[in-house]
Amino acid sequence: MRKNKFRSLAKRKILLLLQAGLVLSLTPSPKMHGYIFRTLAKDWKNIDRDYLKRAIHEFRHERLVDFQEKSDGTIRIVLTKEGEQHTLEYNIDEMEIKKPASWDKKWRIVFFDIPEKRRRARDALRNKLRELGFCELQKSVFVHPYPCQDEIDFIVEFFEIRSCVRYGELTNLTNEAELKLRFGLN
Asked: Global pTM?
């Protein structure tokens, strides 16, 4: 199960890297090009090349990417409309946690210990959790009633703080009446 989660996360990252190429072509600012190249280079080095080839073929089969042959014979991989839509699901600025029809009576807890030298990432994580509707129990402990592990996995990868953040699910939480009231739960 955990391996599948990792594979899914790696696929998302590959799609986002492909989308970054699209953004690069639409960005007129040389300063922004430099930022995108630095970010891409770091992520690109960490991708297993064999897995990348398999993932791109899976993306083509799922109609998320298409191959276009250029006049010089090279092949260009482009995101399809469906692929662009898929990457938007994991766009950090537009991310939201979906509310299911009924609450499963589990609390999702995110807690972290991010060192001072990574303060910007820590503050960005804290702000993102608040933006997503999490309730802050303590300075580095947040709670939410709805399933959100995929979103949290994406956020910690995005901010590169995997080793500092923990996620868990609880069925019993003291003083939960206050939280139920805050989230409008029965």
From this structure: 0.58
